[in-house]
Amino acid sequence: MVMITVVGEGQAAKDAEFVYVGPLAECRECKVRNICFHLEPGKRYRITKARDAKHDCKVHEKGVRVVEIEQVPFEMGLPAKVAIEGSTVTVHIPRCRRPDCPHYRLCMPLGMNGDCKIRVVEAGETLECANGEERKRAKVL
């Protein structure tokens, strides 16, 4: 099944990737908002094809273009006990207070907060957590 959404005209390039961070207040009245609002906040998407259809937009100066997308895996730091290949789990994204940690961005992925449902595609190495938690690098969807 083909997934579609809209992106700013300048971002509508094949193989471009983006992280959906959630709906903007300015989008509430948009006539095409439903094709954006169905995406999952914090998940990464790749544009597989830009379509010809364009729409005016309050956020993007040059308007938006309809694109076909696919969800792509990304790396994140997970609690070791849930980093099991093939598992689908709900994880709580912690409020880490250690931005100096080399794994901060892995454990606090852009756009993800609170409880997030993920599927572990690949479990990787153990991460040395500055807070003393047992965590692993994992590719997730």
Question: What can you see in these coordinates?
Answer:
This protein has 141 residues and is mainly β. It folds into two domains: 3-72, no CATH class; 74-140, no CATH class. Helix content is 6%, strand content 45%. It has helices at 34-37, 104-107, and strands at 3-8, 17-19, 44-55, 64-72, 74-79, 88-93, 114-128, 134-140. The strands form two sheets. A four-stranded antiparallel beta sheet has the order 1-4-3-2, with no helix packed on it. Strands 5-8-7-6 form a four-stranded antiparallel beta sheet. The longest helix has 4 residues, at 34-37. It starts with a strand and ends with a strand.
Distance between the ends: 17 Å
State the assembly state of the protein chains.
single chain
Low-confidence stretches: none
By secondary-structure content and strand pairing, the structural class works out as mainly beta
Summed over residues and divided by their number, the pLDDT gives a mean of: 94
How many runs of DSSP E, i.e. beta strands?
Answer: 8
Proportion in β-strands? over 45%
Secondary-structure element series: EEHEEEEHEE
Measured on Cα atoms, how large is the radius of gyration? 17 Å
Secondary structure layout:
Layout: E1 3-8, E2 17-19, H1 34-37, E3 44-55, E4 64-72, E5 74-79, E6 88-93, H2 104-107, E7 114-128, E8 134-140
Antiparallel strand pairs: 1-4, 2-3, 3-4, 5-8, 6-7, 7-8
Question: Quick gist of this model?
Answer:
With 141 residues, the protein is mainly beta. The protein is built from two helices and eight strands.
